[in-house]
Design brief:
single chain, alpha/beta, six-stranded parallel β-sheet, two-stranded antiparallel ribbon, 15 helices, 10 strands, globular
Length: 443
């Protein structure tokens, strides 16, 4: 391992190195908790959106996203900070993390801190340093803004608990979907070492809810919940396997979010996919996020979206449209009578628009102009709904016909995905992308 230059460079040079090293960790959110400042410290915490995105009230949310250190005793094949890589190594001190956070906050650059880390010396040693930084930030600097911190697998449970009382959200990265993939690419990590702290956080959160019910002023433990991240495309798991793992995590560990990170080839290794000019599998990542949204808010199950015969998402159609095309026997539905759960399954109708429909139809019969005002994307929904027993246009309820027309609507894709070819997602020759597969965001 190259010599640490901890004491040989300045704080802002460290910031340049350790903020750049943190860019591959996508599980960076500032959502899910409201906490007002007490008037004595600096900052407060409002439920908001994702780092460098927009909250529900239109505000742009920013977090200082850094690693505590890019030194690491582990040699994960996919990681730029793996111990065998020849990169410049450095670490912050707890005081430097506090100084940076407070100075950025005073300048209104950020609303909180996202702190991850490599594993320096040992999990316990690293977790102690993170605890020292958070304790100083909360108790000495009186910072009352948002903090998202990573729990280090293998660290002492008591250390994780102490950090949990200082953080708003905590995450333990799954890294890879299966135990076999971990054994292959991250031999120093196991499913047990990752799931144990995840279970610890879940159990302590449940205990804390009971404490808060009895003692209103009891300290809060990870009030914004926990999240995790999986790398997509480094190993040959299908979308079906990945989605089932995510569904299981939501059900068994009560996670707030599962993040999917498209594999970026930063290392040369025979166990990794060959580096090509095609770039990371961003569209595949996007489809998984859409499907994840369906699991969390649209009451879908993983087995409804994919199966062993069709294990991967259609790259040309989003998962909700693809599901609807495979279940045309359920359509068209009458928007003036359909249950809320049925409306959620109509392409072009999101959670908010479905709620508006249910509320508005109590006052009278809705027509297509009403639906448009409510936010329904009619260019998708028109093939699957009727108003007053009539469709918007004369159309055939046939899979091929509707598929051709939906493809012509040109789905809005995120800027990171738009303009790239579909070919770049074929990272493994033996993966059969199914030809069977709503909106780039489900409202």
């Amino acid at each position: 391992m190259p010599e640490t230059i901890l004491n040989k460079i300045g704080m802002y040079e460290k910031l340049k190195i350790l903020s750049d090293a943190a860019k591959y960790d996508v599980s960076c959110t500032s959502s899910g908790v409201d906490r007002n400042g007490d008037g004595k410290g600096m900052g407060n915490c409002r439920a908001a959106g994702i780092c460098h995105s927009f909250s529900a009230d239109g505000r742009c949310i920013s977090l200082l996203k850094i690693l505590f250190t890019n030194e690491c005793i582990f040699d994960c094949k996919y990681c730029i900070n793996r111990s065998s890589n020849d990169v410049v190594r450095t670490s912050f001190t707890p005081e430097e993390v506090c100084t940076l956070t407070m100075e950025f906050y005073r300048r209104n650059y950020i609303e909180g801190l996202f702190l991850s880390s490599g594993v320096l010396r040992s999990p316990n040693y690293t977790m102690e340093l993170i605890y020292a930084a958070l304790y100083r930030l909360r108790k000495v600097c009186n910072f009352q803004g948002y903090i998202h911190v990573k729990a280090i697998p293998g660290a002492d449970p008591e250390l994780i608990k102490r950090v949990g009382f200082l953080a708003d959200r905590m995450s333990v990265n799954m890294e890879l979907p299966t135990a076999e993939s971990l054994r292959l690419l991250a031999p120093h990590k196991t499913r047990k070492s990752i799931l144990t702290p995840m279970r610890l956080v879940q159990n302590r959160m449940e205990e804390n809810k009971e404490e808060l019910a009895v003692y209103r002023n009891a300290p809060k433990f990870v009030p914004a919940g926990q999240s995790t991240q999986m790398i997509i495309g480094a190993t040959p798991e299908s979308d079906y396997q990945i989605l089932n793992v995510a569904e299981s995590l939501y059900r068994k560990f009560d996670l707030k979010r599962v993040f999917y990170s498209a594999f970026v080839a930063v290392n040369e290794d025979t166990l990794l996919p060959q580096k090509t000019s095609d770039g990371p599998p961003l569209l595949r990542e996007h489809r998984l996020y859409q499907a994840d949204w369906l699991l969390r808010f649209y009451k879908f199950k993983a087995e409804e979206l994919l199966d062993e015969k069709n294990p991967n998402f259609n790259l040309y159609l989003d998962p909700k449209c693809n599901w609807a095309l495979k279940h045309l026997e359920m359509f068209p539905v009458e928007v003036n009578r359909a249950d809320y759960e049925v409306l959620l399954r109509v392409p072009g109708i999101g959670v908010k628009s479905a709620q508006r429909i249910v509320k508005a139809r109590r006052m009278g019969i809705l027509d297509f102009s009403d639906l448009k005002k409510m936010g329904v994307v009619l260019k998708r929904a028109l093939y699957f709904i009727t108003c007053g027993g009539r469709m918007m246009y004369r159309t055939k309820i046939e899979e091929d016909y509707i598929t051709r027309n939906l493809l012509n609507t040109k789905e809005r894709l995120p800027d990171s995905v738009r303009g790239m070819t579909y070919r770049q997602l074929s990272l493994f020759d033996d993966v059969d992308w199914g030809s069977d597969n709503e909106n780039n965001l489900y409202l």
